[in-house]
């Protein structure tokens, strides 16, 4: 069954955009870093970039971008198990717009497997989504404007002055390249809270048959 559902269609769907906004509002109330349109749109584009670079079909790229923009809607239910809640919500939303079941299955399995507490790269789209989501660390995600009251997540994100995700020249490695202000947070502190995520990125890269590398301030650390 052919599908008319595209990333742009989803992006312009007012119902889905409301769920994304309200999910971020809930996290804002709980003191979490930004998970709104800046985050999900960036994740969508990076997911698509990974799939495109590795030679997957244009439809797979489209499905990856859709999974990316919808991946955090479950936060409106609760932060705990938000990946599973989001997958169930995405099923209902996509089924209501008559997306083919096979494509819905691909998207909800990716959404349901993106959180590090339960994630597994089970298909190329889920693996690409994991990498795109877990490497989005940047200063602009910090909402707290009072540096004195920063917790470790605020401090580590705020310390990242530049963040870039790209493929090596031979397309055999995915590289996370960070510039970290070590006066604000040490590289060791970054690993203290993000080690599990970096291990998951490595696992997702292995599924895609590429290597995961991380550079911090010009030095290879993974």
Task: Provide the fold topology.
Elements: H1 7-11, H2 14-30, H3 37-53, H4 58-70, H5 82-96, H6 101-112, H7 124-134, H8 152-159, E1 160-167, E2 173-180, H9 187-207, E3 211-216, E4 219-220
Parallel strand pairs: 2-3
Antiparallel strand pairs: 1-2, 3-4
Helix pairs in contact: 3-4, 3-7, 4-6, 4-7, 5-6, 6-7, 7-9
Mean pLDDT: 95
Poorly predicted sequence stretches spanning 5 or more consecutive residues: none
Assess the beta-strand content as a share of residues: 5-15%
The portion of residues assigned to helices is 40-55%
Total beta strand runs: 4
Topology as H/E string?
HHHHHHHHEEHEE
What spatial form do the alpha-carbon principal axes imply?
Answer: globular
- N-to-C terminal Cα separation, in Å? 43 Å
> Main β-sheet: number of strands, strand sense, barrel status?
4 strands, mixed
Decide which structural class fits the backbone. alpha+beta
Main attributes of the structure:
222 residues, alpha+beta, four-stranded mixed beta sheet, 9 helices, 4 strands
Q: Could you please describe the fold and organization of this structure?
A:
This protein has 222 residues and is an alpha+beta fold. The chain is 54% helix and 11% strand. Strands 1-2-3-4 form a 4-stranded mixed sheet. Helix 4 crosses helix 6, helix 4 packs across helix 7 (124-134) and helix 7 (124-134) runs antiparallel to helix 9. The longest helix is centred in the last third of the chain and has 21 residues, at 187-207. It is globular and about 50 Å long.
